[in-house]
Inverse folding.
């Protein structure tokens, strides 16, 4: 078996463990990109979807284009991973979704053996006029906690366009996670940023989600759901800036603490520069809601089982 | 089935319940009728053993066993459950999953989720995949709560104002579900401030000022409630000062 095949199979296995369907990685009808450390293992176009990848000394540069008016039938699959215990992977990516196009992306980031791995994702995302992009990113980490994950995204959404993202890191140790997402939302456009993370041991989580509601009647939601246990620390900054008439933004943060040594904080920042914009926020941080736990206990679950059900629900 | 013996509850020095003596028979629908603020929901919390509601005097006996010190789960495992007046909402938990949890708590397995939803008048194909969160209206959430209780097949169901937030057309369906709960020797404690609901019970007790004033035929208790308690000024009468109406 060649080194390539071995690596492809190992990545596929990790991909499957993270919830991905390995068959999709070799399905010629599905556009996709698989990067193992600094090596592109697979790059496949589909009608209306072009993927241009280039290996760099520190990782990979990728440009993914969805042509105007194209409705991509099957989600585009992305898989990034580092299989060795140590290594740095920097992914510099650009996503261009043309006017009126519609696409969804399923990204999986896998670091199953990480002891000292650094994963940097620097993305520029452009959603065209009346285009729609859904981006789901699921992480699968080992239990060692030796991962540094630094996803940054600058998102631009054109008139009438929509962008929805879901970031999930609930398997394995989060390690050090610093998310920095910033969206420039145009006229009548919509942006929803959703992050869900389960922190354990000494994980350090920092999430910053910023919505710049620059277009008339633009709408935005910055949502985060964090569970922090053991000695984990978490800070969530949800920011919304209302710069246009009729703009509506909402920041929604829930952080649950399990155990006496975890620390969480939530910082909402709302700024209105146009008196016809409206921003709201809500945050609930601390222990699991007592009424939820007691309701489940009244159905026969133990206290621990009840807390697990609540936690699994918010991270789903 | 259930006996409350001289139960009292004081919170931060304030007597909320006192001298509660209540006997609920097997297979009985027993209404607790009282105005807002008289201690009905507190009484439900004491029987279910919720945190902060341990009796400061007296005892709670269920099927001959003193359960005063038992946890909520311990009581649920013995067949007691509670449907809250304002039920909790759960992100990421579907109605189907929520009802399965109740079924899991039933010694006999309980009826499947779809069947429970039908019993409270909710079409399973429209509700099983819904999430038990803020997307359900107050009335829908109340009915899902009742369906969850049905899925447990409890020996004792405590229903805290199951009629509140329910439209008139659905009320009969709710009362039918209450009757289903009382099948096969199981009991229902039906907490309400509406005479019309209490009238569907086998017996009723009137609660005022944190204690039970009268127990008997629900129509007679309803008359007593209507004639005396509507304007009752004793909603928070201190221990020992509750007047005996007649």
């Amino acid at each position: 078996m060649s080194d390539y095949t071995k690596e492809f199979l190992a990545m596929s296995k990790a991909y499957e463990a993270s919830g991905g369907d390995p068959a999709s990685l070799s399905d010629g009808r599905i556009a996709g990109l698989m990067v193992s450390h600094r090596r592109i293992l697979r790059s496949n176009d589909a009608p209306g979807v072009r993927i241009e990848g280039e290996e760099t000394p520190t990782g990979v540069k990728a440009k993914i284009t969805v042509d105007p008016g194209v409705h991509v039938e099957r989600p585009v699959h992305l898989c990034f991973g580092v299989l060795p215990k140590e290594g740095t992977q920097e992914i510099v990516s650009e996503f261009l979704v043309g006017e009126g196009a519609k696409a969804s992306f399923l990204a999986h980031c896998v670091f199953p053996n990480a002891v000292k791995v650094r994963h940097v994702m620097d993305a520029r995302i452009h959603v065209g006029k009346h285009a729609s992009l859904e981006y789901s990113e699921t992480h699968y980490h080992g239990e060692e906690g030796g991962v540094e994950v630094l996803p940054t995204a600058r998102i631009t959404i054109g008139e009438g366009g929509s962008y929805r993202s879901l970031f999930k890191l609930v398997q394995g140790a989060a390690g050090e996670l610093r998310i920095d997402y910033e969206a420039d939302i145009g006229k009548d456009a919509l942006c929803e940023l959703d992050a869900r993370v389960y922190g354990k041991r000494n994980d350090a989580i920092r999430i910053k989600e910023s919505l710049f509601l620059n277009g008339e009647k633009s709408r935005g939601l910055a949502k985060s759901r964090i569970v922090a246990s053991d000695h984990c620390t978490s800070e969530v900054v949800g920011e919304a800036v209302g710069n246009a008439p009729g703009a509506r933004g909402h920041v929604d943060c829930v952080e649950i603490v399990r155990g006496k040594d975890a620390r969480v904080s939530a910082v909402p920042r709302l700024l209105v520069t146009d008196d016809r914009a409206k921003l709201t926020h809500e945050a609930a941080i601390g222990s699991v809601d007592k009424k939820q736990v007691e309701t489940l206990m009244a159905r026969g679950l133990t206290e621990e089982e009840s807390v697990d059900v609540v936690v699994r629900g918010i991270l789903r | 089935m259930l006996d409350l013996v001289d139960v009292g509850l004081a919170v931060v020095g304030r007597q909320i319940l006192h001298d509660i003596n209540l006997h609920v028979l097997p297979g009985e629908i027993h209404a607790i009728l009282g105005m807002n603020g008289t201690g009905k929901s507190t009484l439900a919390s004491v029987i279910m053993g919720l945190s902060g509601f341990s009796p400061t005097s007296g005892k709670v006996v269920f099927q001959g066993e003193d359960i005063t010190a038992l946890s909520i789960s311990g009581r649920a495992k013995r067949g007691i459950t509670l449907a809250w007046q304002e039920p909790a909402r759960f992100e990421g938990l579907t109605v189907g999953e929520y009802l399965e949890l109740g079924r899991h708590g039933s010694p006999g397995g309980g009826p499947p989720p779809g069947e429970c939803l039908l019993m409270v008048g909710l079409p399973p194909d429209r509700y099983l995949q819904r999430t038990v969160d803020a997307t359900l209206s107050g009335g829908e959430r109340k009915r899902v709560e009742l369906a969850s209780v049905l899925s447990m097949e409890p020996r004792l169901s405590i229903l805290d104002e199951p009629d509140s937030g329910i439209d008139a057309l659905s009320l009969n369906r709710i009362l039918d579900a209450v009757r289903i709960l009382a099948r096969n020797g199981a009991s229902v404690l039906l907490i309400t401030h509406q005479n019309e609901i209490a009238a569907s019970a086998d017996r009723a007790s009137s609660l005022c000022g944190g204690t039970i004033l009268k127990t008997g035929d629900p129509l007679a208790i309803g008359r007593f409630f209507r004639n005396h308690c509507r304007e009752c000024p004793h909603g928070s009468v201190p221990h020992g000062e509750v007047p005996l109406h007649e």
